[in-house]
Amino acid sequence: MSMNSLVRSAAASALVLLAAGAFDRADAQTKTRLTVYTALENDQLQPFKSAIEAAVPEVEIAWVRDSTGVITARFLAEKDNPRADLVMGLAATSIIVFETAGLLEPYKPAGADALKPNFRDTTEPYTWTGMDGYLGVICYNTAEAAKAGTTPPKSWKDLLDAKYADKLVMPHPASSGTGYLMVGGWLQMMGEAEGWKFMDALHQNIAVYTHSGSAPCVQAARGERVAGIALDMRGASEKTKGAPLEVIIPSEGTGWEIEAAAVVKGSKNMALAKKVADWVATKGANELYSKTYAVVAMPGVENLPPNYPAGAEKSLIKNDFAWMATNRERILAEWTKRYDAKAAKK
Protein backbone atom coordinates (compact mmCIF):
# COMPACT_ATOMS: atom_id res chain seq x y z
CA MET A 1 0.00 0.00 0.00
CA SER A 2 1.37 3.46 -0.91
CA MET A 3 2.08 6.14 1.69
CA ASN A 4 -0.86 8.20 0.42
CA SER A 5 -3.17 5.20 0.77
CA LEU A 6 -1.96 4.61 4.34
CA VAL A 7 -2.61 8.23 5.23
CA ARG A 8 -6.09 8.12 3.70
CA SER A 9 -6.85 4.83 5.51
CA ALA A 10 -5.63 6.20 8.85
CA ALA A 11 -7.64 9.36 8.37
CA ALA A 12 -10.76 7.37 7.55
CA SER A 13 -10.26 5.19 10.64
CA ALA A 14 -9.79 8.28 12.79
CA LEU A 15 -13.04 9.73 11.44
CA VAL A 16 -14.87 6.49 12.27
CA LEU A 17 -13.48 6.52 15.82
CA LEU A 18 -14.33 10.18 16.28
CA ALA A 19 -17.84 9.54 14.99
CA ALA A 20 -18.23 6.57 17.35
CA GLY A 21 -17.02 8.67 20.27
CA ALA A 22 -19.39 11.46 19.35
CA PHE A 23 -22.23 8.94 19.14
CA ASP A 24 -21.37 7.54 22.60
CA ARG A 25 -21.29 11.06 24.07
CA ALA A 26 -24.56 11.93 22.39
CA ASP A 27 -26.08 8.68 23.68
CA ALA A 28 -24.93 9.52 27.22
CA GLN A 29 -26.40 13.01 26.89
CA THR A 30 -29.79 11.61 25.89
CA LYS A 31 -30.07 9.62 29.12
CA THR A 32 -32.19 11.16 31.86
CA ARG A 33 -30.66 11.15 35.33
CA LEU A 34 -33.03 9.74 37.97
CA THR A 35 -32.24 10.36 41.63
CA VAL A 36 -33.15 7.34 43.76
CA TYR A 37 -33.13 7.42 47.58
CA THR A 38 -32.24 4.01 49.01
CA ALA A 39 -31.11 1.99 52.02
CA LEU A 40 -29.83 -0.90 49.87
CA GLU A 41 -26.44 -2.22 50.94
CA ASN A 42 -23.45 -0.69 49.15
CA ASP A 43 -22.59 -3.92 47.36
CA GLN A 44 -26.10 -4.05 45.88
CA LEU A 45 -25.97 -0.62 44.27
CA GLN A 46 -23.98 -1.40 41.11
CA PRO A 47 -25.88 -4.62 40.24
CA PHE A 48 -29.20 -2.79 40.68
CA LYS A 49 -28.01 0.20 38.64
CA SER A 50 -26.82 -2.05 35.80
CA ALA A 51 -30.06 -4.05 35.74
CA ILE A 52 -32.31 -0.98 35.78
CA GLU A 53 -30.35 0.83 33.07
CA ALA A 54 -30.42 -2.29 30.88
CA ALA A 55 -34.20 -2.55 31.28
CA VAL A 56 -34.83 1.20 30.90
CA PRO A 57 -31.96 2.42 28.69
CA GLU A 58 -33.23 6.00 28.66
CA VAL A 59 -32.23 6.49 32.31
CA GLU A 60 -29.09 6.89 34.37
CA ILE A 61 -29.56 5.92 38.03
CA ALA A 62 -28.00 8.22 40.64
CA TRP A 63 -28.20 6.71 44.12
CA VAL A 64 -28.48 8.65 47.37
CA ARG A 65 -27.75 5.93 49.93
CA ASP A 66 -27.80 5.84 53.73
CA SER A 67 -29.37 3.90 56.60
CA THR A 68 -33.15 3.63 56.76
CA GLY A 69 -33.45 6.19 59.54
CA VAL A 70 -31.26 8.78 57.81
CA ILE A 71 -32.96 8.38 54.42
CA THR A 72 -36.39 8.61 56.04
CA ALA A 73 -35.49 11.79 57.92
CA ARG A 74 -33.90 13.36 54.83
CA PHE A 75 -36.88 12.61 52.61
CA LEU A 76 -39.32 14.08 55.13
CA ALA A 77 -37.14 17.17 55.59
CA GLU A 78 -37.34 17.76 51.81
CA LYS A 79 -41.11 17.33 51.61
CA ASP A 80 -41.68 20.91 50.37
CA ASN A 81 -38.95 20.58 47.74
CA PRO A 82 -38.49 16.89 46.89
CA ARG A 83 -35.16 16.03 45.27
CA ALA A 84 -35.72 12.33 44.61
CA ASP A 85 -37.55 10.79 41.67
CA LEU A 86 -38.00 7.42 43.39
CA VAL A 87 -37.43 5.67 46.68
CA MET A 88 -36.29 2.05 46.40
CA GLY A 89 -35.00 -0.56 48.81
CA LEU A 90 -36.43 1.28 51.82
CA ALA A 91 -38.51 -0.20 54.65
CA ALA A 92 -42.22 -0.28 53.88
CA THR A 93 -42.95 1.24 57.30
CA SER A 94 -40.98 4.33 56.23
CA ILE A 95 -42.61 4.45 52.80
CA ILE A 96 -46.07 4.27 54.40
CA VAL A 97 -45.16 7.36 56.44
CA PHE A 98 -44.41 9.12 53.12
CA GLU A 99 -47.69 7.83 51.67
CA THR A 100 -49.66 9.14 54.65
CA ALA A 101 -47.99 12.54 54.26
CA GLY A 102 -49.07 12.68 50.58
CA LEU A 103 -45.51 12.62 49.26
CA LEU A 104 -45.86 9.71 46.82
CA GLU A 105 -47.31 9.57 43.33
CA PRO A 106 -50.26 7.18 43.01
CA TYR A 107 -49.04 4.48 40.63
CA LYS A 108 -49.51 0.72 40.33
CA PRO A 109 -46.76 -0.88 38.25
CA ALA A 110 -47.63 -3.14 35.36
CA GLY A 111 -47.49 -6.70 36.67
CA ALA A 112 -47.95 -5.78 40.33
CA ASP A 113 -51.04 -7.99 40.60
CA ALA A 114 -48.83 -11.04 40.05
CA LEU A 115 -46.90 -10.37 43.26
CA LYS A 116 -47.70 -11.89 46.63
CA PRO A 117 -50.59 -9.98 48.28
CA ASN A 118 -48.54 -8.93 51.32
CA PHE A 119 -45.99 -7.27 49.03
CA ARG A 120 -48.55 -4.87 47.54
CA ASP A 121 -50.02 -1.62 48.86
CA THR A 122 -53.41 -2.46 50.37
CA THR A 123 -54.76 1.09 50.53
CA GLU A 124 -56.08 3.33 47.78
CA PRO A 125 -54.61 5.07 45.95
CA TYR A 126 -51.88 2.48 45.36
CA THR A 127 -48.41 4.00 45.80
CA TRP A 128 -45.78 1.39 46.82
CA THR A 129 -44.65 -2.07 45.72
CA GLY A 130 -42.72 -4.58 47.81
CA MET A 131 -39.43 -6.06 46.67
CA ASP A 132 -38.08 -8.43 49.30
CA GLY A 133 -38.61 -9.35 52.93
CA TYR A 134 -36.44 -9.97 55.99
CA LEU A 135 -37.38 -11.50 59.32
CA GLY A 136 -36.19 -12.11 62.85
CA VAL A 137 -34.73 -15.43 64.01
CA ILE A 138 -32.96 -16.79 67.08
CA CYS A 139 -29.30 -17.66 66.52
CA TYR A 140 -28.77 -20.31 69.19
CA ASN A 141 -25.21 -21.43 70.03
CA THR A 142 -25.44 -25.12 70.93
CA ALA A 143 -21.96 -25.25 72.46
CA GLU A 144 -22.58 -22.32 74.81
CA ALA A 145 -26.09 -23.59 75.53
CA ALA A 146 -24.64 -26.87 76.82
CA LYS A 147 -22.52 -24.92 79.30
CA ALA A 148 -25.53 -22.85 80.40
CA GLY A 149 -27.81 -25.88 80.69
CA THR A 150 -30.44 -24.51 78.29
CA THR A 151 -32.41 -26.31 75.61
CA PRO A 152 -33.35 -24.90 72.17
CA PRO A 153 -36.30 -22.50 72.52
CA LYS A 154 -39.51 -23.56 70.83
CA SER A 155 -41.48 -20.46 71.89
CA TRP A 156 -40.46 -16.84 72.35
CA LYS A 157 -41.40 -17.20 76.00
CA ASP A 158 -38.79 -19.94 76.41
CA LEU A 159 -36.24 -17.11 76.30
CA LEU A 160 -37.58 -15.89 79.67
CA ASP A 161 -35.94 -18.82 81.51
CA ALA A 162 -33.61 -17.54 84.25
CA LYS A 163 -30.82 -19.69 82.77
CA TYR A 164 -30.57 -17.09 79.99
CA ALA A 165 -29.75 -14.21 82.37
CA ASP A 166 -27.21 -11.92 80.65
CA LYS A 167 -26.80 -14.50 77.89
CA LEU A 168 -29.12 -12.96 75.26
CA VAL A 169 -28.63 -10.05 72.87
CA MET A 170 -30.97 -8.30 70.42
CA PRO A 171 -30.96 -5.18 68.23
CA HIS A 172 -32.03 -1.77 69.55
CA PRO A 173 -35.32 -0.95 67.76
CA ALA A 174 -34.58 2.77 67.42
CA SER A 175 -31.33 2.03 65.59
CA SER A 176 -32.09 -1.21 63.80
CA GLY A 177 -34.95 -2.11 61.51
CA THR A 178 -34.58 -5.69 62.71
CA GLY A 179 -35.05 -4.55 66.31
CA TYR A 180 -38.20 -2.63 65.44
CA LEU A 181 -39.73 -5.43 63.38
CA MET A 182 -39.28 -7.74 66.39
CA VAL A 183 -40.84 -5.30 68.86
CA GLY A 184 -43.70 -4.55 66.45
CA GLY A 185 -44.13 -8.27 65.83
CA TRP A 186 -44.37 -9.17 69.52
CA LEU A 187 -46.89 -6.41 70.20
CA GLN A 188 -49.06 -7.65 67.34
CA MET A 189 -48.84 -11.39 67.99
CA MET A 190 -49.26 -11.12 71.79
CA GLY A 191 -51.33 -7.95 72.09
CA GLU A 192 -49.86 -4.77 73.55
CA ALA A 193 -50.37 -5.54 77.26
CA GLU A 194 -48.89 -9.04 76.99
CA GLY A 195 -46.23 -7.86 74.55
CA TRP A 196 -44.85 -5.27 76.97
CA LYS A 197 -45.05 -7.80 79.81
CA PHE A 198 -43.02 -10.24 77.67
CA MET A 199 -40.40 -7.60 76.88
CA ASP A 200 -40.16 -6.61 80.56
CA ALA A 201 -39.26 -10.21 81.39
CA LEU A 202 -36.99 -10.62 78.35
CA HIS A 203 -35.10 -7.48 79.39
CA GLN A 204 -33.93 -9.26 82.54
CA ASN A 205 -32.02 -11.76 80.37
CA ILE A 206 -30.67 -9.29 77.80
CA ALA A 207 -26.99 -8.45 78.14
CA VAL A 208 -27.03 -5.59 75.63
CA TYR A 209 -29.13 -4.06 72.84
CA THR A 210 -26.88 -3.65 69.79
CA HIS A 211 -27.22 -0.97 67.10
CA SER A 212 -26.95 -3.52 64.30
CA GLY A 213 -29.45 -6.10 63.13
CA SER A 214 -26.77 -8.70 62.38
CA ALA A 215 -24.48 -8.15 65.41
CA PRO A 216 -26.50 -10.36 67.82
CA CYS A 217 -26.06 -13.38 65.56
CA VAL A 218 -22.37 -12.63 65.08
CA GLN A 219 -21.91 -12.48 68.87
CA ALA A 220 -23.77 -15.77 69.31
CA ALA A 221 -21.70 -17.38 66.55
CA ARG A 222 -18.50 -16.35 68.33
CA GLY A 223 -19.70 -17.84 71.59
CA GLU A 224 -20.00 -14.44 73.30
CA ARG A 225 -23.72 -15.08 73.95
CA VAL A 226 -25.88 -18.18 74.15
CA ALA A 227 -28.40 -16.68 71.72
CA GLY A 228 -29.00 -13.58 69.64
CA ILE A 229 -32.19 -12.30 68.02
CA ALA A 230 -31.11 -11.22 64.54
CA LEU A 231 -31.64 -11.24 60.77
CA ASP A 232 -32.57 -14.47 59.00
CA MET A 233 -29.87 -14.26 56.34
CA ARG A 234 -27.14 -13.57 58.90
CA GLY A 235 -28.14 -16.66 60.85
CA ALA A 236 -27.84 -18.87 57.77
CA SER A 237 -24.55 -17.23 56.80
CA GLU A 238 -22.90 -17.70 60.21
CA LYS A 239 -23.97 -21.34 60.40
CA THR A 240 -22.63 -21.98 56.89
CA LYS A 241 -19.29 -20.52 57.99
CA GLY A 242 -19.11 -23.26 60.61
CA ALA A 243 -20.51 -21.67 63.76
CA PRO A 244 -22.28 -24.13 66.12
CA LEU A 245 -25.66 -22.50 65.60
CA GLU A 246 -29.26 -23.52 65.29
CA VAL A 247 -31.31 -20.93 63.39
CA ILE A 248 -34.71 -21.01 65.07
CA ILE A 249 -38.10 -19.46 64.36
CA PRO A 250 -40.38 -19.96 67.39
CA SER A 251 -43.75 -21.62 67.06
CA GLU A 252 -45.77 -18.37 67.35
CA GLY A 253 -44.18 -17.02 64.17
CA THR A 254 -41.95 -14.00 63.77
CA GLY A 255 -41.96 -10.31 62.91
CA TRP A 256 -40.80 -9.19 59.50
CA GLU A 257 -40.39 -6.19 57.23
CA ILE A 258 -40.49 -5.42 53.50
CA GLU A 259 -38.18 -3.36 51.35
CA ALA A 260 -40.29 -1.47 48.84
CA ALA A 261 -40.24 1.11 46.04
CA ALA A 262 -42.40 4.10 45.13
CA VAL A 263 -42.50 7.07 42.74
CA VAL A 264 -42.09 10.50 44.34
CA LYS A 265 -44.86 13.03 43.81
CA GLY A 266 -43.59 16.03 41.89
CA SER A 267 -40.80 14.18 40.06
CA LYS A 268 -39.78 16.11 36.95
CA ASN A 269 -39.15 12.77 35.24
CA MET A 270 -42.45 11.12 36.03
CA ALA A 271 -42.83 8.94 32.92
CA LEU A 272 -39.37 7.42 33.30
CA ALA A 273 -39.73 7.02 37.05
CA LYS A 274 -42.87 4.97 36.38
CA LYS A 275 -40.95 2.81 33.88
CA VAL A 276 -38.44 2.00 36.62
CA ALA A 277 -41.32 1.25 38.99
CA ASP A 278 -42.61 -1.21 36.38
CA TRP A 279 -39.19 -2.94 36.42
CA VAL A 280 -39.45 -3.34 40.21
CA ALA A 281 -42.38 -5.75 39.75
CA THR A 282 -40.77 -7.92 37.04
CA LYS A 283 -39.49 -11.47 37.37
CA GLY A 284 -35.99 -10.33 36.43
CA ALA A 285 -35.97 -7.80 39.24
CA ASN A 286 -37.18 -10.41 41.73
CA GLU A 287 -34.45 -12.80 40.60
CA LEU A 288 -31.96 -10.04 41.43
CA TYR A 289 -33.52 -9.52 44.88
CA SER A 290 -33.29 -13.28 45.52
CA LYS A 291 -29.49 -13.13 45.33
CA THR A 292 -29.44 -11.40 48.72
CA TYR A 293 -32.86 -12.20 50.26
CA ALA A 294 -34.56 -15.56 50.71
CA VAL A 295 -38.06 -14.00 50.67
CA VAL A 296 -39.05 -11.97 47.59
CA ALA A 297 -42.26 -10.54 46.20
CA MET A 298 -42.86 -12.80 43.18
CA PRO A 299 -44.25 -16.30 43.70
CA GLY A 300 -41.98 -19.03 42.38
CA VAL A 301 -38.75 -16.99 42.60
CA GLU A 302 -36.67 -18.71 45.26
CA ASN A 303 -32.97 -18.96 45.99
CA LEU A 304 -32.64 -20.27 49.54
CA PRO A 305 -29.10 -20.15 50.94
CA PRO A 306 -27.59 -23.14 52.78
CA ASN A 307 -28.82 -23.55 56.37
CA TYR A 308 -31.77 -21.22 55.91
CA PRO A 309 -34.57 -22.19 58.37
CA ALA A 310 -37.16 -24.47 56.80
CA GLY A 311 -40.66 -23.04 56.37
CA ALA A 312 -39.53 -19.51 57.20
CA GLU A 313 -41.98 -17.74 54.89
CA LYS A 314 -44.92 -19.67 56.37
CA SER A 315 -43.91 -18.44 59.83
CA LEU A 316 -44.42 -14.74 59.04
CA ILE A 317 -47.08 -13.16 61.24
CA LYS A 318 -49.94 -11.19 59.71
CA ASN A 319 -48.11 -7.90 59.83
CA ASP A 320 -49.95 -4.58 59.80
CA PHE A 321 -47.30 -2.31 58.29
CA ALA A 322 -49.57 0.73 58.47
CA TRP A 323 -50.01 0.18 62.21
CA MET A 324 -46.24 -0.16 62.65
CA ALA A 325 -45.67 3.05 60.71
CA THR A 326 -48.36 5.06 62.52
CA ASN A 327 -47.31 3.90 65.99
CA ARG A 328 -43.55 3.93 65.51
CA GLU A 329 -42.79 7.06 67.55
CA ARG A 330 -45.06 6.01 70.40
CA ILE A 331 -43.66 2.48 70.56
CA LEU A 332 -40.04 3.60 70.43
CA ALA A 333 -40.60 6.22 73.15
CA GLU A 334 -42.12 3.57 75.44
CA TRP A 335 -39.39 1.05 74.63
CA THR A 336 -36.65 3.60 75.31
CA LYS A 337 -38.18 4.58 78.66
CA ARG A 338 -38.25 0.94 79.77
CA TYR A 339 -35.09 -0.62 78.36
CA ASP A 340 -32.58 1.91 77.01
CA ALA A 341 -30.28 1.50 80.03
CA LYS A 342 -28.83 -1.64 78.39
CA ALA A 343 -28.22 -0.03 74.99
CA ALA A 344 -24.74 -0.54 73.56
CA LYS A 345 -22.55 2.54 73.46
CA LYS A 346 -22.45 4.19 70.03
Beta fraction: 15-25%
Which consecutive residue ranges, at least 5 long each, have pLDDT under 50? 1-27
- Total number of β-strand segments? 10
Broad CATH class of the largest domain: Alpha Beta
CATH fold node name of the largest domain: D-Maltodextrin-Binding Protein, domain 2
In CATH, the homologous superfamily of the largest domain goes by the name Periplasmic binding protein-like II
End-to-end distance? 74 Å
- Secondary-structure element order, N to C: HEHEHEHEHEHHEHEHEEHHEHH
CATH architecture of the largest domain: 3-Layer(aba) Sandwich
Q: What's the mean pLDDT score?
A: 91
Question: What is the radius of gyration computed over CA atoms, rounded to a whole number of angstroms?
Answer: 24 Å
How would you portray this structure in words?
The chain has 346 residues and is an alpha/beta fold. Helices cover 43% and strands 18% of the residues. The chain contains 13 helices and ten strands. Strands 1, 2, 3, 4, 5, 6, 7, 8, 9 and 10 form a ten-stranded mixed sheet that branches. The longest helix is centred in the first third of the chain and has 28 residues, at 3-30. The protein is globular, with a radius of gyration of 24 Å.
Features:
346 residues; 2 domains; D-Maltodextrin-Binding Protein, domain 2; disordered N terminus; ten-stranded mixed sheet; 10 strands; alpha/beta
What is the secondary structure topology, with strand pairs?
Elements: H1 3-30, E1 32-38, H2 42-55, E2 59-65, H3 68-77, E3 86-91, H4 92-100, E4 128-141, H5 142-148, E5 168-171, H6 177-190, H7 192-205, E6 206-210, H8 215-221, E7 227-231, H9 232-240, E8 245-248, E9 256-263, H10 270-280, H11 283-289, E10 295-296, H12 321-326, H13 328-339
Parallel strand pairs: 1-2, 1-3, 5-6, 5-7
Antiparallel strand pairs: 3-9, 4-7, 4-8, 4-9, 4-10
Helix pairs in contact: 6-7
